[in-house]
């Protein structure tokens, strides 16, 4: 799966054009009376193809532009945006932002991030890998993926295969004199299949998501994986209500860590809407467990040298020996809390949950099943029953019942419930089977106990 050659790549020229536009608008904002200003400009391009039962269902080419401007008149803030980069639209956006700022109330927390925190070093994180694939090639690849999955005995239908190519160029500039350029690519393959017999039907899927198309698993491997997952769900049963250990598969386990990030993020904290309010320095997970932010991973899904405000990112612990080390803050939420930005305006950058357990036994996926012993393996969750305010967790789930470390049979139509506070404290092990397809990097997570509501 080849990439564009440098002579075909015009991304740096596009970034220069966005940078010149951003700097010009900031100068004009200052001339209009703004004490501070910041601009975020972007160009996103992509190709998306969906194939079902050998036929092309959709082909979509995209080229989206975005331009957002925020101005500050003292501590009064005004923001406006446009998707049109022509001069008249840019001027209208500037006029609108200034007009809004003149009429808003002063906010003591408003303003740019601290000038001393701006990034000054910009290493190449290997995020730019344009994929040389045209529509015909994407269609052919989609058909190969679907054919590989449908070739398995027992697969009776398909919800389709998808091939997506994406490129993103972005510039952030502010009146501190900061100018940051970013370019990145994201490509994905997916397949959803259906299996059926006289007793019913089941659906499942698989996908791959990479920075470079050269890192994709093969079409055959993706089709095989989607078929294997779908067929394994045939004959699913319900469980009686019980309490038992629960193992979250890696792609589901990252959601548990996502809830942690939400609970320790600035917006929830300064609104006093988090069950982890005032928990910095307190034990929230087992003492062997560490979670660290790694912004500079090469080809990382969440890698970045600076955050959405230009603040330099850095390697930093979030959970150290089970203790919450810090919150996740941009400059606004930090000021509201009387703290400093953690370089997380716009989100987290590659959060790594370090594999581990308390007895030194193997923690690959097979080892995690053995550690589970008899209990529930969760491979799918449904619904939105998670409260950041109280920590209450209740979601529909499906997966497999495990006995003596071996998968016994598939299960469906159950609900799993507990409180996140108890779930985090009750983590027994984190697997080494890390799912690399997200900015939250974790293996499977084994919990001591949850309530299963079934029949």
Describe this structure in words.
It is an enzyme of class 3 (hydrolase). Its EC number is 3.4.24.-. InterPro entries: Metalloprtase-TldD/E_C (IPR045569), Metalloprtase-TldD/E_cen_dom (IPR045570), Metalloprtase-TldD/E_N (IPR002510), PmbA (IPR047657), TldD/PmbA_N (IPR035068), TldD/PmbA_sf (IPR036059). This is Metalloprotease PmbA. This protein has 455 residues and is an alpha+beta fold. It folds into 2 domains: 227 residues, 2-Layer Sandwich (PmbA/TldD fold), CATH 3.30.2290; 212 residues, no CATH class. It contains 9 helices and 18 strands. The protein has a 6-stranded antiparallel beta sheet with strand order 3-2-1-4-5-6. It has a 5-stranded mixed barrel with strand order 7-13-14-15-18. A 5-stranded mixed beta sheet has the order 10-9-8-11-17, covered by helices on one side. The relative contact order is 0.13.
Protein topology:
Elements: H1 11-31, E1 36-52, E2 55-73, E3 76-82, H2 87-103, H3 135-150, E4 155-174, E5 179-197, E6 200-210, H4 219-232, E7 242-248, H5 250-263, H6 266-270, E8 291-293, E9 316-320, E10 323-324, H7 331-337, E11 351-353, E12 356-357, H8 365-372, E13 375-382, E14 392-403, E15 406-419, H9 420-425, E16 427-430, E17 440-441, E18 445-453
Parallel strand pairs: 7-13, 11-17
Antiparallel strand pairs: 1-2, 1-4, 2-3, 4-5, 5-6, 7-18, 8-9, 8-11, 9-10, 12-16, 13-14, 14-15, 15-18, 16-18
Helix pairs in contact: 3-4
């Amino acid at each position: 799966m080849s990439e564009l050659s440098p002579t075909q790549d015009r991304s740096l020229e596009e970034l220069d054009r966005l940078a010149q536009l951003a700097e010009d608008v900031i100068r004009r904002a200052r001339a209009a009376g703004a004490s501070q200003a910041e601009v975020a400009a972007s160009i996103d391009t992509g190709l998306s193809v969906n194939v079902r039962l050998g036929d092309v269902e959709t082909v979509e080419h995209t080229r989206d532009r975005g331009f957002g401007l925020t101005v500050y008149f003292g501590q009064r803030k005004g923001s406006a945006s446009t998707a049109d980069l022509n001069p008249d639209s840019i001027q209208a956006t500037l006029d609108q932002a200034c007009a809004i700022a003149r009429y808003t109330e002063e906010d003591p927390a408003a303003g740019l991030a601290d000038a001393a925190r701006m990034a000054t070093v910009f290493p190449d994180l290997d995020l730019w890998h344009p994929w040389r694939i045209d529509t015909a090639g994407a269609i052919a690849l989609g058909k190969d993926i679907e054919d590989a999955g449908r070739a398995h005995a027992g697969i009776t239908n398909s919800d389709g295969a998808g091939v997506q190519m994406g490129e993103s160029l972005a510039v952030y500039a502010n009146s501190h004199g900061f100018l940051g350029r970013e370019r990145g690519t994201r490509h994905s393959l997916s397949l959803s299949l259906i299996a059926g017999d006289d007793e019913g039907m089941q659906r499942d899927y698989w996908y791959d998501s990479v920075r470079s198309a050269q890192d994709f698993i093969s079409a055959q491997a993706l089709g095989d994986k989607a078929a294997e997952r779908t067929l394994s769900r045939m004959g699913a049963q319900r469980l009686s209500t019980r309490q038992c250990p629960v193992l979250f598969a890696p792609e589901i386990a990252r959601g548990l860590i996502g809830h942690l990030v939400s609970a320790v993020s600035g917006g929830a904290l300064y609104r006093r809407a988090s069950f982890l309010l005032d928990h910095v320095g307190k034990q929230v997970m087992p003492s062997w467990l560490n979670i660290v932010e790694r912004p500079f991973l090469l080809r990382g899904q969440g890698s970045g040298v600076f955050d959405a405000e230009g603040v330099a990112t850095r390697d930093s612990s979030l959970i150290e020996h089970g203790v919450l080390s810090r919150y996740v803050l941009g400059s606004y939420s930090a000021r509201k809390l009387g703290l400093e930005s953690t370089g997380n305006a716009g989100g987290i950058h590659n959060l790594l949950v370090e594999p581990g357990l308390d007895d030194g036994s193997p923690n690959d996926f097979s080892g995690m099943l053995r550690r589970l012993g008899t209990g529930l393996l969760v491979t799918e969750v449904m619904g939105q029953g998670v409260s950041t305010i109280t920590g209450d967790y209740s979601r529909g789930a499906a997966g497999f019942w495990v006995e003596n470390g071996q998968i016994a049979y598939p299960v469906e139509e159950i609900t799993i419930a507990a409180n996140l506070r108890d779930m985090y404290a009750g983590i027994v092990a984190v697997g080494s089977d890390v799912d690399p397809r997200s900015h939250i990097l974790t293996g499977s997570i084994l919990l001591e106990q949850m309530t299963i509501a079934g029949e």
